[in-house]
Design a protein that fits this description.
Blueprint: E1 2-5, E2 22-28, E3 33-40, E4 46-48, E5 55-56, E6 59-67, E7 72-77, E8 81-86, E9 91-94, E10 106-114, E11 119-126, E12 129-135, E13 142-144, E14 160-163, E15 168-173, E16 176-181, E17 187-189, E18 201-208, E19 213-221, E20 232-239, E21 246-248, E22 255-256, E23 264-267, E24 272-277, E25 280-285, E26 291-296, E27 305-312, E28 323-327, E29 330-334, E30 341-344
Parallel strand pairs: 1-30
Antiparallel strand pairs: 2-3, 2-27, 3-4, 3-5, 6-7, 7-8, 8-9, 10-11, 11-12, 12-13, 14-15, 15-16, 16-17, 18-19, 19-20, 20-21, 20-22, 23-24, 24-25, 25-26, 28-29
């Protein structure tokens, strides 16, 4: 079967032989060591890719992403060291210091990878403002895209994602949803998220390129009283990035307690949303917001955090699972073992 399609479909041209959904992240040990680790979504088992730590010391939550084509995991250690871990060689291949010509508080946060031009995008946090920047993962070279502030400061770590094809950077700041242009760094849309309850928050966002919708967790304080320090419930919700209209998908809370920033990702093709809360990995159905599974994380090292900064490897598909590819108004379903020849024009 031969299909002529646009470049958007190249993200779906991956092997169907992978055995499981692959989630990667950081294990933070009691010795303040960070190890790139893999999480089995079906069992919750956390396994180190390498016994040697990838870096030491502090890290930022939500400042990580995955390159499914090059099989690389990126994260920021400390305030400005950009670490690239290659899964094929199972080692750190680069760790440049991100250039900081503006003496920003944080040169890059809320990071997202664009596989179309092999570039990492994020927000420069300087007191009073946020600006869109790009960083070369090989050398840490810094490029200021925004001519002026794209929004005031006060970002939430991990509340960002990217639309590589539409060249848009998406993030939430204090329940305002910003869509920024990767070309000029200016805000295209900035609607207030229309929350059903004014006390609620919208956090841990992830972009679904199949339906141009932002998914995330709707945190409603007081929905549960499970913890004296943080009472509330989490629900899967979606937001229209243009209007800010919210749809709370989950009929009941997917989990109690409050959220952790930057510990979530989405698999548009399988229709699943993943997040970590209270050392459990939750898998939620995008269609109805029901919990598909909730696995306690099995930590090999009794660490401070078994896993954080998770990112899914979209090149890996579950065995026996149909793949769907969006083609304009049509969707192509591929059965296991079926081959597809994609010609980009």
């Amino acid at each position: 079967m031969r299909i002529v399609c646009c470049l958007l479909l190249l993200v779906s041209n991956f092997s169907l032989s992978a055995q499981t959904v692959e989630l990667y992240g950081l294990n933070f040990s009691k010795n303040n060591e960070l190890r790139v680790s893999k999480v089995d979504a079906s069992t919750g088992n956390v396994s180190y890719l390498n016994t040697q730590p990838a870096s030491n010391g502090t890290f930022l939550t939500g400042v990580s992403d995955f390159d499914p084509i090059g099989q690389r995991y990126f994260y920021v250690a400390g305030a400005n060291q950009l670490v690239t871990y290659n899964l094929d060689s199972n080692k750190v291949v680069s760790r440049p210091i991100v250039a900081n010509p503006n003496s920003a508080v944080t040169p890059i946060t809320n990071m997202a990878y664009n596989w179309l031009n092999d570039t990492l995008y994020g927000l420069e946090y300087k007191t009073g403002s946020l600006r869109l920047v790009s960083v070369d993962p090989d050398n840490g070279n810094f490029n200021m895209i925004s001519p002026g502030p794209i929004s005031p400061d006060g970002f939430s770590q991990g509340d960002a994602d990217i639309d590589p094809v539409g060249r848009r950077f998406l993030y939430v700041r204090r329940n305002t949803h910003y869509t920024g242009s990767l070309d000029n760094g200016q805000a295209i849309h900035q609607p207030s998220v229309k929350l059903p309850d004014p006390k609620a928050f919208f956090v841990n966002i992830a972009y679904n390129w199949l339906n141009d919708t932002i998914y995330g967790l709707y945190f409603l304080p007081g929905a549960f009283a499970s913890n004296p320090w943080c009472t509330g419930g989490l629900f899967l919700a979606s937001v229209d990035p243009v209007t800010g209209n919210m749809n709370v998908i989950s009929k009941t809370p997917t989990s109690p307690d409050c959220f952790q920033g930057g510990v979530s990702d989405i698999d548009p093709m399988l229709g699943q949303y993943y997040y970590v809360r209270d050392n459990k990995l939750y898998v939620v159905d995008l269609a109805d917001g029901s919990v598909i599974s909730s696995q306690s994380l099995v930590d090999p090292g009794n660490s401070i955090m078994p896993i954080t900064n998770i990112a899914i490897n979209e090149a890996a598909r579950a065995a026996g699972t149909n793949i769907r590819m969006k083609m304009g108004a049509d969707t192509l379903w591929i059965n296991p073992g079926e081959s597809v020849d994609l010609n980009a024009f």
